[in-house]
Backbone:
């Protein structure tokens, strides 16, 4: 089952590698506002054991060049490559209506419209044309579908499940015109 929203940790970025020889690092933010990676306090590693005091220097090719207190050379910066940066879910603002943090959805059981179990939320992706949700199916395999109201008509975090429609026969779902995408759920404004 997914973590409780109050206790979940949310990945806000990753250290992609060193920058130069003086201990600077490159950070790929996962926040909607790229500078927001430091807006929720110092991030930690996934286990929450190591805290990183980040100072953002400048944006560079979709990433930030940053300094971490205590990291003074390239070797130390290289050792951090691949480290994912997390903050406590409780530090983040509550998402707006019909917006969700991915961390709140991962692991949730998925049901069909009749309430029968289908699987669990395995991953969410954004390939540029809108969010896509991937399910690990109870019957084996996976299913990938748009994270839209037509394909995911219900997200009930309080009850701890989502409702999914794996196939739709109505090309005008939710009142859209043919060829027009169905309304989508939105990632929360703070973190995708």
Residues:
């Amino acid at each position: 089952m997914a973590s409780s929203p109050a206790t979940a940790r949310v990945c806000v970025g990753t250290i992609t590698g060193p920058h130069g020889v003086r201990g600077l690092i490159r950070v790929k933010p996962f926040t909607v506002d790229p500078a927001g990676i430091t807006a929720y306090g110092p991030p930690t590693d996934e286990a929450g054991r190591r805290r990183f005091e980040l100072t953002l220097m400048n944006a560079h090719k979709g990433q930030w060049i940053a300094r971490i207190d205590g990291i003074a050379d390239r070797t130390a910066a290289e050792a951090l490559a691949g480290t994912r940066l997390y903050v406590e879910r409780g530090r983040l603002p509550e998402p707006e209506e019909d917006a969700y943090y991915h961390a709140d959805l991962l692991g949730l059981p998925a049901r069909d419209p009749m309430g029968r179990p289908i699987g669990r939320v395995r991953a969410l992706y954004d390939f540029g044309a809108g969010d896509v949700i991937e399910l690990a199916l109870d019957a084996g395999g996976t299913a990938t579908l748009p994270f839209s109201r037509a394909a995911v008509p219900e997200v009930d975090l309080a009850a701890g499940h989502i409702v999914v429609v794996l196939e739709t026969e109505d090309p005008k779902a939710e009142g859209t015109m043919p060829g027009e995408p169905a309304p989508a759920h939105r990632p929360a404004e703070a973190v995708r």
